[in-house]
User: Fold this.
Amino acid sequence: MKKSLLALAAAATALAGPAFADKLDDIIGSGKLRCAVVLDFPPMGSRDADNNPQGFDVDYCNDLAKALGVEAEVVETTFPERIPALMSGSVDVAVASTSDTLERAKTVGFSIPYYAFENAVVGRDGVDMANWEGMKGKTVGATAGTYEAIWLEGKVKEWGEGEFRPYQNQADVFLALSQGQLDATVSTVEVAEANVKSGNFGGIKIVDKAPMVPDYVALITLREEYGLINYMNLFINQQVRTGRYAELYKKWVGEGVPADLTIQGVYR
Amino acid sequence: MFNYNFRWNQALNSLPQMLEGALVTIEIALLSMLIGISVAILLTVFRLSGSRILNAVATTWVEIARNTPALFQIYMVHFGLGGFGIHLSPYLSLLIGIAFNNAGYLAENFRGALKAIPETQTRAARSLGMSAGKAFRHVVMPQMLRISFLPMTNQMVWAILMTSLGAVVAMNTDLYGVTSELNARTFRTFELFAIAAVIFYLITKAITLSARLLAARLFRY
Assistant:
């Protein structure tokens, strides 16, 4: 009798275990956090001279793993591959500068914002452009699938003249710009400054700030993983609270104050 | 493991946009085939011409077109020529890239087809007083095109599928471009690409079927 009760209890725990385990449990249980990171998006994600992943997003993945007490594994994805990677279970979260639009939130679960980009208009020498409105009627482009690309394409449609071209990655956009195939692009201020400074692409200059709402980006996971989303929210809060956010900003972006992640006059 | 709830209505709302993209895809494939066939015939003539320079041009073309990825060829048309100040729109870059690839493969198909036509036919035509050009145009070429008709259909299907490579040159009005832009906006990856795959399948199926009907009409004995 006693024996069978014991067996029953063992069976019950064995059954109950997996039934209630969510992604957060799975990550801690497996001892590994797999993050999707976009690695052709400096300074957020790139590769160093030895081909190792580096950047703000890579450090955030490592920090999150450390907080969870597990090992971090960076899985390189492109912007469009983030969602298939999450849905097929090949990564647990995406630390990939994902803009938190309402349209996308119908499909994936967003944490609170962990970073915010300002966007700049980058023009080419010899193209007459006083401010961002100078892009009207020109051939402009941006990295496919990004927040600024969606914004810019909307603007071109609104203007009803000019042409919009979505290139596959940041490098192609700036190559096209410096070759003269594009007259201007919109990219994050971080990327724009890095590319103008590096001198890899000749004849480009920052023209103006792009007049869009700051591009708040968040961590993403599956929509129903509330336990993990809750944990990520607290993690982001702690990163700011402990000064780690400012520290990593200085490390990857440069001097200055990182973007304010709160919004005046509303909760969350 | 697969954690995704399919919501078809949202994706199906974008069907009209995707069908418009499909028209652009068909248009590019058709134009690239017309250009490809014309150039391939020219390359075949180059090879038959006996001129060493023309032969070298044709061989180089075929070698590059057949032995490098189509992705590379399209990318080079856009960014390679762009480096020399020749700026082609995404549409033209894609069209020329695919046409280049088509011409290379078709020239090789035509060469195979020529081998199947006995040389005695050319000799017979010449002995009837036809010039070399006339003999090629009236005797050899019609047979060459007939023999390579099915490989040409194949290439057409391949041209349709190659249009999806236009993304590397910022093409956004073809079927793949429209789909991936919708995906960036909504993140409904699986529905959107499933619909795109079905449209691609239907287009290529329609091409192979109509080619078969056309062949039955054209090549009646």
Chain A has two domains: 14-117+216-252, 119-209. Chain A has a mean pLDDT of 89. The first helix of chain A runs from residue 2 to 20. The first strand of chain A starts at residue 32 and ends at 38.
